[in-house]
Amino acid sequence: MANDDKFKKVISHAKEYGYVFQSSEIYDGLSAVYDYAQNGAELKKNIRDYWWKAMVQMHDNIVGIDAAIFMHPTTWKASGHVDAFNDPLIDNKDSKKRYRADVLVEDHREKILQKINKDIAKAKKRFGDAFNENEFRSTNGNVLRRQKQIDEITTELTRVQEDNDLEGFRQLIIDLGIVCPVSGSKNWTDVKQFNLMFGTQLGASADNSTTVYLRPETAQGIFVNFLNVQKTGRMKIPFGIAQTGKAFRNEIVARQFIFRMREFEQMEMQFFIKPGTQKEWFAYWKDTRLKWHKSLGLGEENYRFHDHEKLAHYADAATDIEFNFPFGFKELEGIHSRTDFDLKQHEEFSGKKLQYFDHEDNESYTPYVLETSIGLDRMFLAVFSNALVEETLEDNSTRTVLKLPAVLAPTKAAILPLVRKDEALTTMAKDIVNDLKWEFNVAYDEKDAVGRRYRRQDANGTPFCITVDGESIENRTVTIRHRDTMEQKRVKIEELRDIIKKEVDIKEWLMRAE
């Protein structure tokens, strides 16, 4: 299935099966704003819980907070967002469409990289076990030429970003021959910077109101509470503060479904460390976070690290964990060594000390910070798009199945009476529902033939279907069907809880990250 077709099917399936709706759809929607429907809300909650348990519950030295969305406006002056939270934007004069200049260049560079990967895949298929990828990369003319293009683009992109050279940005786009995806023309405007924060007024009247901002990130709520948490929790460095919550950015070029939205949710952890130990902790969190992702079984080949060519002025290391979405590899999680910039900025603007007294070394210092930041909505899209597959069965029929990791699936099991009009079967099926729902999110489904119900639950991502039939009345056994293998097995009703728990238990899944 072509990537564009796959992505369209992802969006369509998300709506059809109650995962994601366009916000305010009856009023023709609101651009780049989406609602999570009944199944989407459950999947999103399960992803959040999976992160929270791994990050907070499983670490003795990490605690969680829930800071307010509104913060004192000076917070954003100190953090640099008021003066420098901008995106470089460029318009195409023919299509009237607006784009992020850096994304246009990065997408162009990614297309060249995909050509290299295609050449390597062809050679690997041709030469089989005798194929030496390193040798091929260092000797093949096409690969060397394309890699040189990538390196030259990266160097110039880094330069124009660091120098804030907007004219150079436009010239780079022109020199690369980048065309508008809509009009196909190269008729570009100048590049301009656009601040992404949403502002609003706080106060009872216009005369007494204060300009405040919807937070563009959740990290600052952690930084301003650093000392409160450290003292009340008697935390010793190294320690972390985690938070999940909404953030807001006025994305002019919001696109790709829920990948880039104006209202989104982050899962962030700021890890406070002793200065001089940042390299060690940067390596630790890179490894730890990648293991967490891989524990969900989405395919190791779908992840890669992308080290930042352009570092923020306060950072001394930064990398992204990128995931292979239907539209290519894009950032899923950022891991950043932020030095002591954030706490020192808030010290300066607030006039309050935000230092840690180290009793072992008998000294006070401003801690350095290691950040891990993941977009919950992007994680949702990664899980959902990876899970959606179409299979051809032995009888040449096809089925659409949403192979969500069982630990994240909104509904863990569907209980199906074989015959809807048989009161004994429906009563027993509902009794099973009432018993299992204390521990699992389960569903009762009695409409249509059982085969059609199986297909419906497959497409919905439900890991198990439990069918109650005549034999169930006689000996209290049921048929349990596994979504991915379609294997059916006869088991005792009393065994259902343990069977489901083994497949959906968070501990079983997180142990894979150890």
From TrEMBL:
<dbReference type="InterPro" id="IPR002314">
    <property type="entry name" value="aa-tRNA-synt_IIb"/>
</dbReference>
<feature type="binding site">
    <location>
        <begin position="259"/>
        <end position="264"/>
    </location>
    <ligand>
        <name>ATP</name>
    </ligand>
</feature>
<protein>
    <recommendedName>
        <fullName>Glycine--tRNA ligase</fullName>
        <ecNumber>6.1.1.14</ecNumber>
    </recommendedName>
</protein>
<comment type="function">
    <text>Catalyzes the attachment of glycine to tRNA(Gly).</text>
</comment>
<dbReference type="GO" id="GO:1990742">
    <property type="term" value="C:microvesicle"/>
</dbReference>
<dbReference type="GO" id="GO:0004081">
    <property type="term" value="F:bis(5'-nucleosyl)-tetraphosphatase (asymmetrical) activity"/>
</dbReference>
<keyword id="KW-0067">ATP-binding</keyword>
<feature type="binding site">
    <location>
        <begin position="264"/>
        <end position="268"/>
    </location>
    <ligand>
        <name>substrate</name>
    </ligand>
</feature>
<feature type="binding site">
    <location>
        <begin position="375"/>
        <end position="378"/>
    </location>
    <ligand>
        <name>ATP</name>
    </ligand>
</feature>
<dbReference type="Pfam" id="PF00587">
    <property type="entry name" value="tRNA-synt_2b"/>
</dbReference>
<dbReference type="InterPro" id="IPR006195">
    <property type="entry name" value="aa-tRNA-synth_II"/>
</dbReference>
<comment type="similarity">
    <text>Belongs to the class-II aminoacyl-tRNA synthetase family.</text>
</comment>
<keyword id="KW-0030">Aminoacyl-tRNA synthetase</keyword>
<feature type="binding site">
    <location>
        <position position="217"/>
    </location>
    <ligand>
        <name>substrate</name>
    </ligand>
</feature>
<dbReference type="InterPro" id="IPR004154">
    <property type="entry name" value="Anticodon-bd"/>
</dbReference>
<feature type="binding site">
    <location>
        <begin position="371"/>
        <end position="375"/>
    </location>
    <ligand>
        <name>substrate</name>
    </ligand>
</feature>
<feature type="binding site">
    <location>
        <begin position="249"/>
        <end position="251"/>
    </location>
    <ligand>
        <name>ATP</name>
    </ligand>
</feature>
<dbReference type="GO" id="GO:0005737">
    <property type="term" value="C:cytoplasm"/>
</dbReference>
<feature type="domain" description="Aminoacyl-transfer RNA synthetases class-II family profile">
    <location>
        <begin position="197"/>
        <end position="417"/>
    </location>
</feature>
<keyword id="KW-0436">Ligase</keyword>
<dbReference type="InterPro" id="IPR033731">
    <property type="entry name" value="GlyRS-like_core"/>
</dbReference>
<dbReference type="InterPro" id="IPR002315">
    <property type="entry name" value="tRNA-synt_gly"/>
</dbReference>
<dbReference type="GO" id="GO:0070062">
    <property type="term" value="C:extracellular exosome"/>
</dbReference>
<dbReference type="Pfam" id="PF03129">
    <property type="entry name" value="HGTP_anticodon"/>
</dbReference>
<keyword id="KW-0547">Nucleotide-binding</keyword>
<dbReference type="InterPro" id="IPR022961">
    <property type="entry name" value="Gly_tRNA_ligase_bac"/>
</dbReference>
<dbReference type="GO" id="GO:0006426">
    <property type="term" value="P:glycyl-tRNA aminoacylation"/>
</dbReference>
<dbReference type="InterPro" id="IPR027031">
    <property type="entry name" value="Gly-tRNA_synthase/POLG2"/>
</dbReference>
<dbReference type="GO" id="GO:0004820">
    <property type="term" value="F:glycine-tRNA ligase activity"/>
</dbReference>
<comment type="subunit">
    <text>Homodimer.</text>
</comment>
<feature type="binding site">
    <location>
        <position position="100"/>
    </location>
    <ligand>
        <name>substrate</name>
    </ligand>
</feature>
<keyword id="KW-0963">Cytoplasm</keyword>
<dbReference type="GO" id="GO:0005524">
    <property type="term" value="F:ATP binding"/>
</dbReference>
<keyword id="KW-0648">Protein biosynthesis</keyword>
<dbReference type="GO" id="GO:0015966">
    <property type="term" value="P:diadenosine tetraphosphate biosynthetic process"/>
</dbReference>
<feature type="binding site">
    <location>
        <begin position="331"/>
        <end position="332"/>
    </location>
    <ligand>
        <name>ATP</name>
    </ligand>
</feature>
